[in-house]
Amino acid sequence: MTSRAQLPELLASARVRLDDAGVPLDRHARVVTPKRILGIPRRARLELDLPVWPLGQLLLGDDESLFAAGDTVTPREDRPIGYTSERQRARDELRTMASRAGIPIGSAVHIDPQLLRRPGEPSLTVAGPLVEDGGVLAVRWSTMPGAALRSLADYLEERIELLIQQRGTTR
User: Phi-psi region for residue 64, left (φ > 0), alpha (ψ -120 to 50) or beta?
Assistant: First the structure.
């Protein structure tokens, strides 16, 4: 059971385990819309931020920051495609922006994740998949009412083991 007071130690331990195991980091980026020039809108772009380890619905920064995952895309070359929905068009634009930002094709990039905890700060935002139930931090897998909760420590342990195992099979 993990309380707010135990969170910094838990995240530090997770970072050390992932780093020692050589688990590769993914990129994290924000969508930035530049100011207009002479009233003409400029194309939105991605601004790369710190690298993160993907832990399911959470992302752990290499500085021990914690995020709730946002959209995750893989970059691709810009080419015309027919779309069946505006959502597909928007995701494809994110893929193209990731490619323009210099992220290698095939790499994952996490777009606009929600910051839950800054490194070195005691404050924590309980939002997204992270919930607090009776003073214990837990992760909710689904937004459906009554969805099961999983202790944050158990959740991180399982996700770290999966990443380490995956790293071992892809060498």
Answer: left
